[in-house]
Amino acid sequence: MSSKTSRAALMQELxxxxxxxxxxxxxxxxxxxxxxxxxxxxxxxxxxxxxEGRVTAGRxxxxxxxxxxxxxxxxxxxxxxxxxxxxRDESDRRKxxxxxxxxxxxxxxxxxxxxxxxxxxxxSGYTDEELRLLLRFANDGYKGVLEATxxxxxxxxxxxxxxxPLKSPKSRR
Amino acid sequence: MSSKTSRAALMQELxxxxxxxxxxxxxxxxxxxxxxxxxxxxxxxxxxxxxEGRVTAGRxxxxxxxxxxxxxxxxxxxxxxxxxxxxRDESDRRKxxxxxxxxxxxxxxxxxxxxxxxxxxxxSGYTDEELRLLLRFANDGYKGVLEATxxxxxxxxxxxxxxxPLKSPKSRR
DNA sequence: GCTATATATCTTAGTCACTAAGATTATTAG
DNA sequence: CTAATAATCTTAGTGACTAAGATATATAGC
Lengths: 173, 173
Prior knowledge:
The structure is a homodimer of 173-residue chains. Chain A has seven helices and three strands; from the N terminus they run ααβααββααα.
């Protein structure tokens, strides 16, 4: 961490620091799902719904990587818990739109308060200039990870014998 | 993203950008587990083992938040696949140390190559000065998220029987 | 040295979320 | 009107999880 570290060592440190903090971020998300009493996949869907507002069941399957059958289960659970509503599309009655029940979904929001507080506290120690650099980095980083995820698919040489489901079932209770 | 965004708006943007990129990072990890043919929990344990080198089964349960019974299953699968070895502690024969089989574990490493390449490409666009700022931020951020995870436990108001053990915020290394 | 208790891991039974395949219902094309 | 297509749901089977308890070993008190 000395300010004289070589660039290579700096990158090494950066890599580890980012891995560590992102791993901890994942844990926070899991902790939120746990205290909210819903599974990780359900939480992923809620996150996406909060961004998009109103999407079809098929689209949820697409973005989560789950099968449509699994999504039916996700929606069943979320609907039963009161977080979302099913709404049939009147113009194409095969489609089912899922929309967030705001009042109920807001209950989950409070679990993110500690995280937001920590972030704001953290950011207060940085200048606008520095925050802009961080923003640029986060945006560039997003693109980089996106590319890497694509590239990873080209690396696949493992026999497709046994591919494990993308989402780990994190059952509660 | 204009350079004269107000500080509040800047923070808002930063929050979203970081959420997006970290979510994509999670997906990358899942994709790696998927192509490697092992489950997410198994991958979590491999990550931890790669940092620590050699830990007991109980410690793995502790850091992953899984029960010892579940860990037995994790180790069974990893051992069968050749990634780890069980080694009974000679001085306390109740304990079972789990150690990584380096040659085999290295096979997983190659799935991180696209990610590392993307990161190095990304970083090459930044000065040493800027990278040091990013490092400081990543380290501060880690601490912040750690605190937030702790604080989250204080927000809990859901009935305890609906909850599941939180992953402990342990210090990786 | 014995006995009780504590510690570390493994086993068992039951549960839940997942996949794959196919059923159901609605739309569109010929 | 029929066939093909599309979107969601249903079913059967599987894998990973938890809770509780079994097993094996270690430590402390007498």
